[in-house]
Design a protein that fits this description.
By secondary structure, the chain is of the alpha/beta class. It has a single domain, classed as Ribokinase (UDP-N-acetylmuramoyl-L-alanine:D-glutamate ligase, 3-Layer(aba) Sandwich), CATH 3.40.1190. The protein is 32% helix and 23% strand. The strands form two sheets. A nine-stranded mixed β-sheet has the order 5-4-1-8-9-10-11-12-13, sandwiched between helices. A four-stranded mixed β-sheet has the order 3-2-6-7. A hairpin with a 2-residue loop joins β12 and β13. α1 packs across α7 and α7 runs antiparallel to α8.
Length: 316
């Protein structure tokens, strides 16, 4: 459940800022992809429903953290088209001091097509995100209790992880869609530097394949490995223990975009407040369920009383 909202502790969120163009395909991808023809794949999806949302891992996580009463500080890069997004973040009371505008670039753009089974196909233009290494963790100054290295420019993720480690600031390694950019040794370095690792079940399989690590190899180095599994809930592995976190029940399944970021905001909330893993996992699970009820990654909302009531209804 939501903890004291007066906390001054902040989380530094290193990750992307992006505009999300979300397209809804009113059918199932699998009905239009021939397994024996994937070597010459040429498909076209008619998407009558399209909208543009404010997205990117850094502000998505910061937005959900603010709903939980915490202060998330996005550290990211944006392009010359950032003005509408900047106006929104300021209106939401989210810190913008460490979002650097890079002239001559577009803000990162994601084009996300979702089918009736909530499967997604995404095309992503990195734009200004490729310059995210121009930001430095030390620029955030004092008051940062922990951090997260979320999907961002390749060099930025490497440098920000090293900077967190050098400053002895504990951080979550959350490679997300950026995981394929890294080789085995780089991923092993991230894990050695991090305090926690968070991946979804597909990313966990890829991480295992690339590094050869089993759960025990990772939990020997970090405090927890968190693996989200969508509607099947999540698993939190600590040294010698596996915690199964049930999926909170959403009132409606509307849009999965940004659910992982909302979950990570719940995870960070628990870490900021020293909650046990059972409570932390359930807060994170409920955040994901609340997000999926709304379109886009930053349109959900709740009061503290509403959140606490839903927490009780789901978990007792």
């Amino acid at each position: 459940m939501v903890q004291d909202r007066s906390s001054e502790k902040a989380a530094l969120i290193c990750g992307s800022v992006a505009y999300d163009t979300i397209l809804q395909f009113p059918d199932r991808f699998k009905s239009h992809i021939l397994p024996d023809k994937i070597h010459i794949l040429n498909v076209s999806f008619l998407v009558p429903d399209m909208r543009r949302e404010f997205g990117g891992c850094a502000p998505n996580i910061a937005y959900s953290l603010k709903l939980l009463g915490d202060r998330g500080v996005p550290m990211a890069t944006a392009g010359h088209d950032f003005a509408p997004y900047l106006k929104r973040l300021v209106a939401q009371g989210i810190a913008v001091d460490h979002i650097k505008v890079v002239d001559g670039t577009f803000t990162a753009q994601a084009f996300i097509t979702t089918d009736l089974d909530d499967n997604q196909i995404t095309a992503f233009h990195p734009g200004a995100m490729q310059h995210a290494h121009l930001n430095h963790v030390s620029d955030a100054g004092p008051g940062i209790a922990l951090g997260i290295v979320a999907p961002d420019g390749r060099q930025a993720m490497i440098e920000h992880a090293a900077q967190f480690a050098a400053a002895k600031i504990p951080f979550v390694f959350d490679p997300g869609q950026g995981l394929p950019m890294f080789g085995a040794e780089e991923l092993k370095t991230f894990i050695a530097q991090a305090r926690w690792v968070a991946v979804n079940d597909y990313e966990w399989g890829m991480l295992q394949q690339k590094t050869g690590f089993a759960v025990s190899d990772i939990t020997a180095q970090v405090e927890a490995l968190v693996v989200t599994r969508g509607a099947e809930g999540s698993l939190i592995y600590t040294k010698g223990r596996t915690l199964t976190v049930p999926c909170a029940k959403p009132r409606a399944v509307v849009d999965p975009t940004g659910c992982g970021d909302a979950y990570r905001a719940g995870l960070i909330h628990g870490l900021l407040h020293g909650l046990n893993w059972e409570t932390t996992g359930r807060v994170a699970s409920l955040m994901g369920a609340i997000k999926i009820e709304s379109r886009g990654p930053q349109n959900h909302s709740f009061t503290q009383a509403e959140f606490d009531r839903r927490y009780k209804d789901n978990f007792g």
